[in-house]
Amino acid sequence: MAGHSKWANIKHRKAAQDAKRGKIFTKIIRELTVAAKAGANPDDNPTLRTTIDKALGANMKRDTIDKAIARGAGANDGDNYESVTYEGYGVGGVAVLVECLTDNRNRTVSEVRHAFTKRGGNLGTDGSVAYLFSRKGQMFYESGVDEEALMEAALEAGAEDIVTHDDGSIEVTTEFTDYMAVKEGLAAAGFPPGSAEIAMIPSTTVPLDKDGAEKVLALVDMLEDLDDVQNVYTNADIPEEVMAELD
Question: How far apart, in whole angstroms, are the C-alpha atoms of residue 10 and residue 19?
């Protein structure tokens, strides 16, 4: 894995998400509702458990979470969302994965295609870039954490990989299915992560200069602003110094 700093990128993205908190909440509520259709008990529904964790991490009130779960478990409100993933390319050949929950595929693909076209990219066919990504759990720690103790705790909890980045921040990676167990194990050992998520991790990355980074981030922002889009992943590698220039 690359040794570039990820912390600057995380903080940049979090600031952007905070600015759109209302829309983020709406998307998480939709995700909770869909996940709850497979069962309202998070102990028996790993997807729901992970989504609840995501909601709590976004500071969503427990009452709001419970209402969304009840709505999904009731399955009588007429919602008929399906999961669909679109694949494409941004400027510089950057691979882009767009995960959506939609009740109208025609509307969603039209909006996604428009975003790609407007921001200098193009929508690809199924399988065109998905092979470059694997679903993983990620936990991030700022510099200053006891690296040796964290590494020992992570290995004990069942983590897959631990990487120290150039700025001293540490990234712990897990298999998707082990995410919650490793996260809870690390927290119990005194290492609650500063940031954690389940994401699609690229096997290869494309380094970007300032111009390329601006264009790719503009595409990501436009896609994330669409109501049906839940997550956007790319294999763009934006160095910390370039990210600093964009702030």
Answer: 14
